[in-house]
Amino acid sequence: MGVKGQHGKSPDLDTPSPPTTSGERAGVRGQRINQSQRPRNANERRTEKAKRRDSTKRLPLTQPSPPSQATGERASSAASSAIAPRLLHWYAKHGRSNLPWQHPRSAYRVWLSEVMLQQTQVATVIPYFLRFVEKLPDLATLAASPLDNVFALWSGLGYYSRARNLQRTAQLCVEQHDGGLPRDFDELAALPGIGRSTAGAILAQAHGLRFPILDGNVKRVLARWRGIEGWPGTSAVNSKLWIIAESQTPRRRVVDYTQAIMDLGATVCVRSRPRCGDCPLAGDCVALARGLTAKLPERKPSRKVPTRSTIMLVLRDTQGRLLIERRPPTGVWAGLWSLPESADRTSAQREAVRYGGINGTSALADLPSFVHGFSHYRLEVTPIVLHVAADRRIADDPGRRWVHPEQAAALGLPAPVRKLIASLAEASE
Fold this sequence. Notes:
Elements: H1 22-29, H2 42-57, H3 84-94, H4 107-116, H5 122-135, H6 139-144, H7 147-154, H8 161-176, H9 185-189, H10 196-207, H11 216-226, H12 235-248, H13 254-267, H14 286-290, E1 307-316, E2 322-326, E3 337-338, E4 341-342, H15 345-356, E5 365-366, E6 370-373, E7 378-387, E8 400-403, H16 415-428
Parallel strand pairs: 1-7
Antiparallel strand pairs: 1-4, 2-3, 2-8, 5-7, 6-7
């Protein structure tokens, strides 16, 4: 992470040991002596009590931390974090303190920003966040909003299950938690789309409670600082990182620390070409000392990404409207509105006959193909345009409708479909 501030001695290369729990401390104080070891006279009893008092004095005297998120163990009893002072000093000068979800800071706004920031950079999220909170400023309005409206505000961020989980969580909070996000960790983490790290981020940033986080940026910082090898997606590596995250989360200024370590990963300890010379952790960074910053954290084992093909039917009626249909409730783009799809030209022709009121000999006009990338495959899309007569039966089908291109913007559409429809609207002007 850089040589600035680096000391002569080698950094400690061992992963921090699991923290001593308050139960273990109590166990030392209250351990029993079996009959064969019991002192036989008063002098021996006094000596044994003195030994136990001395043993107890050597134990950590700090209060136990709040329960750990995943295992129920207590967090580190260390009196201080090795990295928090340096991070907080760095954050005071270089951290991001004017993000829109920080002013005002509420559990709802923190939660919304955390979900949006999954797999998405801050610069991309900011305009989406501002539009979202303008239309849906609190849990109650989100819970009551039509899902199509939620999808429309989310369109372009991808991973649409996040939007669906947002609304479902809002509804559960209204039904079961008096209209607010619960402050109990287990209840919060059990809500749809809120896992261990997101729950910790909400409680830490909105309420100042001592809960660690472990998003992608934090994983990268900690994996490099402690030299943790292996892909963080494995349970073994993930467990090591959680232990470190818990041990380093301070008891005070949790809000600033949480933002600081995320900011460090997002702006300094970045994946490619990290700015190690500007890093406050450079002095004892294992990855830097060993020349492993380009390797750590290790990437997910690569596999060949397959390519799939589909035909999107752009059926336009005499009024210039487009036929769209709602996708199935599971799978890619689940529940969103999209253009009808077919596997090949023959089935596309049948769909046109079925919903377009045309005969089977009408010509299909191809538009330029494009490729859309998903996390697990690439989709090659060939749009085909056909001018048809609107089928009146569509009005009775809740899963299909005719819409003008400019009206489609108010619906939840996948980003590539939205872009395609927008290009059609521009071409017709």
